[in-house]
Amino acid sequence: MSPFWYTIDTMQRLYGGDYKAFALFGPVHLFWLGLCAVLCCGGFFGFRRLGDRGRRRVLAVLTFLLLADELLKDISSLATGQFVWQFLPFHLCSINLFICLWYSLRPNPIAAEVLYALSLPGALAALLFPSWQSVPIWNVMHLHSSTVHIMLVLYPVLLLGGGFRPSARRLPAVFGVLVLDTIAAALCNHFLGTNFMFLRGAYGNAALEAIQSFFGPAYILGLLLIVFAVWLVLYLPWTAAALHRKKHPACN
To answer: CA separation (Å) from 191 to 72, 129, 158, 180, 186?
Structure first.
């Protein structure tokens, strides 16, 4: 079988768990980060110029590409006998694929809020600290992991470009989605021996390894604190802007 089809597990089994096919913030990694930045900047301003019909079409195409990307991972791993339960869609980013589908079929502020509060920071963190360093760039899992996370960052950026404005008042609903996904992930982890949502450890992710090392046995609590800290950063500017508009209506 060609190395193009190797999964992360296969690469680590062949070359060892510490094998890295590309360096963190090396040329390959920076290429994907640069592509993400270019697409997000161009997409944000380009999306603003589209009408409602054009925006719906762009989001529909992006959702189709996201689902096709996910199916490529599953079909290729099944066809090569490398499928593992870890490929089921219970990671946070995989759940956001369905949130994108939900919004594309029926645009609503709750789905948009989930994508801003969970998909944007989660997918961006995955791109900054990829857990697929063991697979080279010319590999289906590398291409899948890089492109799917770029699109999961791009989708909420497009929504912001289209006029969506986040609101901290919708965070309880977002937190409810996070809790439900965490419960489903924990159950799968218990019965299937998986590590969805990285609840059982960092699994080769540099940022999560640092969190796990710092918090030790309180690793899960550390993850939760990081989520709240990220939300504070994401929502403080919008909350401050809303308060300013309320106090100074003449400036609107």
So the answer is: 26, 28, 38, 17, 9
pLDDT in tens, 149-175: 999 999 999 999 999 999 999 999 999
Residue 245 forms part of a structural domain: no
Q: What angle do CA 110, 211, 32 make, to 5 degrees?
A: 65
Domain contains 134 = yes
- Grouping H, G, I as helix, E, B as strand and the rest as coil, residue 241 is helix
**Residue 211 contacts residue 202 (beta carbons within 8 Å):** yes
| Amino acid identity, position 178 | L
Q: What is the pLDDT of residue 252?
A: 56
Report the number of distinct structural domains present in the chain. Answer: 1
* Per-residue CA distances from 239 to 31, 165, 178 (Å): 34, 10, 22
Residue 206 lies in a domain: no
Hey, how many other C-beta atoms are within 10 angstroms of the C-beta on 113? 23
- What's the number of CA atoms in the CB half-sphere (13 Å) around residue 161? 23
**Residue 195, token pair as written in the block:** 């590590």
Rounded CA separation 205/229 (Å): 19
**Tens digit of each residue's pLDDT (9 = 90 or more) over 19-78:** 999 999 999 999 999 999 999 999 999 999 999 999 999 999 999 999 999 999 999 999
Task: Tell me the two tokens of residue 148.
Answer: 């799917």
Q: How many CA atoms lie within 13 A of 185 on its CB side?
A: 21
Q: Classify the C-alpha dihedral 7-190-229-247 as positive or negative.
A: positive
Flag whether the pTM goes above 0.85: yes
Q: Which residues of 45-68 are buried (b: 16+ CB within 10 A; e: fewer)?
A: eebeeeeeeebeebbeebbeebee
At residue 207, does pLDDT exceed 70? yes
The answer to whether residue 20 is domain-embedded is yes
Whether 94 and 184 have beta carbons less than 8 Å apart is answered as no
